[in-house]
Amino acid sequence: MARGVNKHALRANYLSALAALQNSALDAAYYRKQYQRHEGHPKPHVVALLALARQRFKVLYKLMTTDAAYDKEILIASHLDRERQNTNNGTRPA
């Protein structure tokens, strides 16, 4: 672990990702996508969970540093649109 890392913040971010994985269908879909992406890795579940935590941290940071507003309905609608487009194009869902 790098020096200067706030271990309490790191643990909070990790536990937040675990809770989101269990309670949010959107986060669970992102986790599954990352899990499939890292299929050959020795511990794909760990890599996928860290990717989810990193993605959640990016969103939180953006919300704290800008005037952006979090709207879950718009986020879900855009995710479903991407899923539909990928299915119609014959590619794997992202």
Give the proportion of residues in helices.
over 70%
Please outline the major beta sheet.
none
List the uncertain runs: none
The number of distinct helices, counting runs of at least 4 residues, comes to: 4
Compute the CA-based radius of gyration: 15 Å
Number of strand segments? 0
Return the string of H and E elements.
Answer: HHHH
Instruction: Determine the strand fraction and express it as a percent band.
Output: under 5%
Mean pLDDT: 83
Termini gap: 31 Å
The coarse silhouette is: globular
Structural class: mainly alpha
Write the layout of secondary structure elements.
Layout: H1 7-23, H2 25-37, H3 44-65, H4 72-88
Helix pairs in contact: 1-2, 1-3, 2-3
